[in-house]
Amino acid sequence: MATRHSRSAARLMMAPAVVLLLGWMLVPLTMTLWFSFRKYLPLRGGDLGFVGFENYGRFLSSSSFWPAVQTTLVIVGGVLIVSVVLGILLALLLDQPIWGQGVVRILVIAPFFVMPTVSALVWKNMFMDPVNGILAHLWRFFGAEPVQWLSQASIPSIIMIVSWQWLPFATLILLTAIQSLDSEQLEAAEMDGAPPLKRFAYIILPHLARAITIVILIQTIFLLSIFAEIFVTTGGAFGTRTLTYLIFQRVLENQNVGLGSAGGVYAIILANIVALFLMRIVGRNLDA
């Protein structure tokens, strides 16, 4: 049992890390709030003074704001659906005793360690190029006209690229959950004559509920700030401009730090709304 002295010593040793983490989070947040209330144009006069909520009103009333929010949610939702569904299928496959299982697992995990920029470049030039891409050659092999992926199917292309990178994460979490399942339940159901689909629906899937909600929560937190894949592939064109990319355009391309900072505050609010919604779902499943 910890004594008062040991608890005080533990707090004292943790204090530098806590202060560092608080500074790491609070300083950028404070600066974002400060600039959001000011008209700051670095190359056009610098700090032009306090403007109140003008930046917030301009950003919210912009014709690009709600489409960017919608695009963000569509991409996040699409990636979650693809990664969870395929993650379950891959986890079930990897749980089977197959030859070269270790090598297969390494190959499945590998995309998670590829940087988003590199991943987007590979997909853009090697797979989705309408002239020399692998998918273009595949289309021609079957006698079809190659698809201009990044212009004709821009949103599905982004979802495909991001899903490829996040699929290993979902697969690992779900595979761990499947391996923790009591095999006696499956054996008993099999002996009772339950077909594979019913064993999956009534035993495996309910057991995966917690793992699925954790995957959804963690991935959503990171996917709401998706940027690199869009910057490398479409540059925000063809309806792929997310809220993060819109903020980037306001700050760097338009050189309006105040307006971009207001957008950053909106992004924080959106992330917290989504996180609170997901936490309710996660909490309900974890308490079940």
CATH fold node name of the domain at 58-116 and 163-287: MetI-like fold
Biggest sheet descriptor:
2 strands, antiparallel
Provide mean pLDDT, rounded: 83
Name the strands of the widest sheet in spatial order.
1-2
Number of strands: 2
Q: Tell me the strand percentage band.
A: under 5%
- Using only CA atoms, what is the Rg? 24 Å
What structural class do helix, strand and pairing data support? mainly alpha
- How many helices? 14
CATH class of the domain at 58-116 and 163-287: Mainly Alpha
Instruction: Compute the separation of the termini in Å.
Output: 31 Å
Instruction: Give the overall form.
Output: globular
Level of helix content? Answer: over 70%
Order of helices and strands: HEEHHHHHHHHHHHHH
**Superfamily (CATH H level) name of the domain at 58-116 and 163-287:** MetI-like
**pLDDT < 50 runs, ≥5 residues:** none
CATH architecture of the domain at 58-116 and 163-287: Orthogonal Bundle
Summarize it.
This protein has helices spanning 4-36, 54-61, 65-94, 101-109, 116-127, 134-141, 149-152, 154-179, 183-191, 196-207, 209-223, 228-233, 243-253, 257-287, and strands at 38-41, 46-50. By secondary structure, the chain is mainly alpha-helical.
